[in-house]
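Researcher: Go.
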Amino acid sequence: MIHNFDAQREQYISIDSIPEFRTEVEKQLTPISIYDHSKPDIAYAERMAEEVINISGAWDTVFLKHPKGDSPELEVWDEDADPIYSVGKKMKAWFKPEPVLAELTRWGIDKPIRITVAFARTTLIKEPNIGMRLLVPGDVIEAPYNLPTTTDTGPLRFRILNTSQEGFFHYRWLYVKSICELITGDQALKVRTDNVKNPQLPR
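Model: Structure:
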């Protein structure tokens, strides 16, 4: 026999006959509710995310890109041949060094290196000059990329191409990952500041 779904239209659902003594707040924020930002579990997860980066990460230097002129907005989509950056801020981050592939031509052109750099989200938020801005395309990360070289080039600088938040836990992101491309040697994108008296510029 085929079931007739229309026959249930006049029926009451079972919850209507059960008296409810809880308030709306108690019903929405139950002790087992996943969406509750005051949960100790979230604070514990964020501390563990920071601990993972502190243990497995290396000291990197982050240079934040600044808006130009009187514009409060930061252009992140268009190429900027003369960007302005803040003084570098050292913080722990994890990244996997990629092999350096050199195209052996008479011009000595190197293939760009791309890496993914991961930060603990709370580490970025706690920084006064970063906060909820986090990291955006155009920011620069100086990473301790150990390479055999005949010149003292120091750490390599990478420009952020894209960022994403990962590590989802109870409606809270734990990590910020940035896909970066090598810019060391590109004089047009050399990190500089013009609004700081004693800027600490990378070599």
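Model: The chain has a mean pLDDT of 76.
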